[in-house]
């Protein structure tokens, strides 16, 4: 992980500090329906304001096309941001130019300003140097507290960081520290729990993990593909038969690397995909031709938990079954709750994130017990894949 600056490395008193946050939160009828990202950003904003900085928040919102529009205005998140920081927040009707400069000029030291949607300008997603320069003109210091956007080389995440003294915010710092502890310098043994529908979307992830972890637990549709690649008949289960060669290659790399590949021993099988569908538990070797594997079975749950009990670090991405509908949530729930218990007991460091992971762990009531749960989505997955993140690389120490 890049050796990055943090807020403690900079003197922010009396300075105008640009903070790149991620306020791209769900909104319905003009109201925020999930404030998690806002709440996680708030500590950085309040700390900077308390230290005497004039805090200017930059963010994208939605996918506007061809300029400004009210449906994608960040003004909609202003009430929730004010609630989260416990103070009045000034709104600027643009993120660059006269309107932005005026809003900032009117604000006092120790106050917070939210500027309008970055994506109202085409230069944002193009990582345009002129647009980045216009952003940099607004402040003295740049803080990136949007790890969820760090995999994108956009003007507000990459180019502007190279124009001003820059550092990671508290949320970014916590994320980077947790990820480094999980895979870069972990306590071993390390296990990765990976689920989800398809291996085609996670080839790079699996290829990286089998070289870096001691145990790889697979569930969900991707486990079916690995079973199929081993010659197991998977009936009507979700399976990417055309990815069998890739699955065999990953299994071979795991063997060469000394990584134990752990697949389901038994499965909960149904003939239809709906809540409460009639189901049965069968060994994976005896799956009915008209059956679908919708969850791991009880023997698999016990075996996986036993494997994880011997680990010091657990990285989790994706559900182990169709957790959205009962009773096919039992596998994900049981394993997640076991990892939560091991974390509470101080046995393992547990880090999770990406895709449906947060929803699955939330459904299991395990989110709060994990050591760190990332809401970063794509950035978390690219980190698991071993890729460099532009927004993080730009924060590297200089000189």
Q: Short description, anyone?
A:
The chain has 399 residues and is an alpha/beta fold. The chain is 34% helix and 17% strand.
Structure description:
Helix 1 packs across helix 2 (78-85). This protein has helices at residues 36-50, 78-85, 97-106, 129-136, 155-159, 170-184, 203-209, 220-229, 244-257, 298-309, 330-344, 357-363, 378-384, 390-393; strands at 16-20, 27-28, 31-32, 54-58, 89-92, 112-115, 141-144, 166-168, 190-194, 215-218, 260-262, 266-270, 279-283, 292-296, 313-317, 349-353, 372-374. Helices cover 34% and strands 17% of the residues. A 6-stranded parallel beta sheet has the order 5-6-4-1-7-8, with helices on both faces. The protein has a 6-stranded parallel beta sheet with strand order 11-10-9-15-16-17, sandwiched between helices. The protein folds into 2 domains: 7-170, Phosphoglycerate kinase, N-terminal domain (Rossmann fold); 186-384, Phosphoglycerate kinase, N-terminal domain (Rossmann fold, 3-Layer(aba) Sandwich). With 399 residues, it is α/β, with parallel strands linked by helices. The model has no long low-confidence stretch (mean pLDDT 94).
């Amino acid at each position: 992980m890049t050796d990055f600056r943090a807020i403690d490395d900079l003197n922010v008193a009396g300075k105008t500090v640009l903070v790149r946050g991620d306020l791209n939160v769900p909104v319905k009828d003009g109201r925020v329906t999930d404030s998690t990202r806002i709440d996680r950003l708030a500590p950085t904003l309040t700390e900077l304001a308390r230290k005497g900085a004039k805090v200017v928040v930059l963010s994208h919102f939605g996918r506007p096309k061809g300029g400004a529009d009210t449906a994608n205005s960040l003004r909609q998140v202003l009430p929730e941001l004010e609630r989260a920081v416990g103070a009045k927040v000034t709104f600027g009707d643009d993120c660059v130019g006269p309107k932005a400069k005026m809003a900032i000029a009117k604000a006092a030291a120790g106050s917070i300003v939210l500027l309008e949607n970055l994506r109202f300008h085409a230069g944002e997603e193009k990582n345009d140097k002129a647009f980045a320069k216009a952003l940099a003109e607004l402040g003295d210091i740049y803080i990136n507290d949007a790890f969820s956007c760090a995999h994108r080389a956009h003007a507000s995440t990459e180019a502007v960081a190279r124009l001003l003294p820059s550092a990671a915010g508290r949320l970014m710092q916590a994320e980077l520290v947790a990820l480094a502890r999980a895979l870069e310098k972990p306590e071993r043994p390390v296990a990765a729990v990976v689920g989800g529908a398809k291996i085609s979307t996670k080839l790079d992830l699996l290829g990286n993990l089998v070289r870096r972890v001691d145990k790889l637990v697979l569930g969900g549709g991707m486990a079916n593909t690995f079973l199929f690649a081993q010659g197991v008949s998977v009936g009507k289960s979700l399976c990417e038969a055309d990815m069998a060669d890739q699955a065999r290659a990953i299994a071979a790399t795991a063997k060469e690397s000394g990584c134990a590949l752990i697949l389901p021993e038994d499965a909960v099988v149904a003939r239809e995909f709906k809540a409460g569908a009639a189901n049965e538990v069968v060994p994976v070797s005896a799956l009915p031709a008209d059956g679908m594997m919708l969850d791991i079975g009880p023997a698999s749950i016990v075996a996986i938990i036993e494997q994880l009990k011997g680990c010091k670090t657990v990285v989790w991405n994706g559900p182990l079954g169709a957790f959205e509908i009962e009773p096919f949530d039992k596998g994900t729930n049981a394993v997640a709750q076991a990892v939560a218990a091991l974390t509470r007991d101080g046995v393992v460091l547990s880090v999770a994130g990406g895709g449906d992971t947060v929803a699955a762990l939330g459904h299991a009531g395990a989110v709060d017990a994990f050591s760190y749960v990332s809401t970063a989505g794509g950035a978390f997955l690219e980190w698991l894949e071993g890729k460099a993140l532009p927004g993080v690389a730009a924060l590297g120490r200089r000189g």
